[in-house]
Specification:
Layout: E1 18-19, H1 23-26, H2 28-39, E2 44-48, E3 57-63, E4 66-74, E5 77-82, E6 103-105, E7 109-110, E8 117-118, E9 124-126, H3 139-142, E10 146-152, E11 155-159, H4 167-171, H5 174-178, E12 187-196, H6 200-205, H7 213-216, E13 228-233, E14 236-241, H8 262-276, H9 283-290, H10 292-295, H11 302-319, H12 329-335, E15 338-341, E16 345-349, E17 353-361, E18 369-377, E19 389-391, H13 403-416, H14 433-446, E20 452-453
Length: 455
């Protein structure tokens, strides 16, 4: 699985054209190697802190054969254990049929096979007929295997590598640039998941660039120019919009409509986004945009329209107890619109909402993945909706009209990668650098698939 040709090793080299093959997308051997070389070595986002607010609350997370229990063991402590009894290997917690994972509340975990029992700290507290083992069952030998766990941004992260570095170190520079957006204060408006017919990398890459908007989502072109950049940021990458001078903040998710009267175009884009995809905006933003034609005279310069719209929406939210963080426009421009957190999590951030994607293998079938989408926003304290992960088929109208356009590409790309005439991926060095950077970093873990200079 080793590349023998010249390879790209530094992020700086990705500014030039590169190519890489399809093995990472279509090879079952590659998927099997990912288990030990990748998934058991990296920090993975597994859920939200608010999902387990009380002692004894737990959730499970599965990645290939590994299953984990994440449990709140004290008011300020979360731990993670392998979801497997130390006696004979039975899972302690089963996932209900049709559910993404298991959730619940326990004072202890009892194996359904022979009743071995574990407390919230992973200690084995009951063994049926323990004396039969003649004193050999020590506490260390029978306790649950523990894995590293930490939190950032309101998410819970785990790492199965006992020698891994700190989460914060792993997440930089993404964490530092995203901290001002206070993602930990947001709560999910909706959460959907699906077992989809493509590799997890194809799924993540579908949303890791803006290059596809003009062709895949042509309806958005009536609202303005969607030319965007992508930057390699160490293990991670971020994307954002190009914007005219003086409109730094227009590189953000909360973006002004253009191509006509900015008051009208902004209202049209916000309404379409709310009704057809229900992401990247809020009802408050839509309502403030709809008032622009009444509150501003025709011919108002675009920067003033943008400022008035955002100021109005911020004030409206403040009246109902929703306080947006204040982020400097220059920082907003640098942070861009979305971060691809290596290897399989994307955060599309704004000051009052976010859109997040994640994907991971579905067994060892390279043509399938578990794909998840969640939309978050700020709510008045005590008025957060109680949402659950909802399994949603790709043709379900709940997805709206925009995301299915991406789904069509994802399935078609997976099939095309296996075509004998496909000679390797050719990512745009300016607009799809995030994709090349993903494979540059994957190759360091996998010892295969490194991007090569395009000759």
């Amino acid at each position: 699985m080793n590349d023998i040709s010249q390879v790209v090793e530094s992020a700086e080299d990705l500014t030039a054209p590169v190519t890489f093959g399809a093995e990472a997308y279509v090879s079952e051997a590659y998927v099997r190697a990912e288990r030990d070389k990748l998934w058991r070595k990296v920090w993975q986002q597994v859920g939200r802190v608010e999902e387990i607010p009380e002692v004894g609350n737990f959730l499970t997370y599965d990645i290939l054969e590994d299953s984990l229990i994440v449990v709140r063991t004290a008011p300020d402590t979360i731990k993670a254990f392998y979801n497997v009894c130390s006696h004979r290997g039975r899972r302690l917690v089963d996932t209900p049929p049709g559910a993404k994972n298991a959730k619940g509340d326990r004072v202890k975990f009892v194996c359904g096979f022979h009743g071995w029992t574990y407390d919230l700290d992973g200690r084995c507290t009951y063994i049926l007929e323990k004396d039969d083992w003649q004193g050999k069952l020590t506490d260390e030998r029978t306790r649950l295997g523990e894995v590293k766990v930490d939190t950032w941004g309101g998410w819970i992260w785990i790492n199965m590598d006992p020698d891994c570095g700190p989460l914060r170190e792993f997440l930089e520079p993404a964490a530092g640039l995203l901290d001002p957006f206070e993602l930990q204060n947001m709560r999910p408006r909706w959460r959907k998941w699906i077992v989809f017919d493509c590799n997890w990398k194809v799924a993540m890459e579908a949303f890791a660039e803006i290059y596809h908007v003009e062709v895949t989502h042509p309806e958005f072109m009536s609202f303005g120019d969607f030319r965007g950049w992508a930057r390699a940021q160490g293990l991670h990458s971020n994307i954002g919009y190009d914007a005219p001078k003086g409109l730094d903040e227009n590189q953000a998710k909360l973006r002004l409509g253009s191509g006509g009267d900015p008051r009208v175009k902004t209202a049209e884009m916000q309404t379409y986004t709310w009704e057809q995809v229900n992401t990247n905006t809020t009802r408050t933003l839509v309502d403030a945009a709809l008032r622009l034609v009444d509150e501003l005279p025709e011919g108002t310069p675009a920067p003033q329209v943008l400022k008035h719209w955002l100021d109005s929406a911020r004030a409206d939210d403040a009246k109902r107890g929703v306080i947006w963080p204040t982020v400097d426009p220059a920082h907003t421009a640098k942070a861009g619109t979305a971060w691809q957190i290596f290897p399989n999590f994307q955060i599309g951030h704004a000051v009052n909402n976010s859109l997040c994607y994640s994907a991971r293998p579905y067994g060892y079938d390279p043509d399938k993945c578990i794909f998840e989408v969640a939309v978050y926003e700020l709510y008045p304290k005590g008025e957060e909706p109680a949402t659950e992960w909802e399994y949603t088929e790709k043709d379900d109208p709940k997805w709206g009209s925009v995301l299915p356009q991406d789904f069509s590409n994802m399935a078609a790309v997976q099939q095309g990668m296996k075509n004998g005439g496909f000679r390797g991926t050719l990512p745009n060095p300016y607009r799809e650098r995030s994709i090349a950077n993903l494979h540059r970093n994957l190759s360091k873990y996998m010892n295969a698939g490194a991007p090569r200079p395009l000759k």
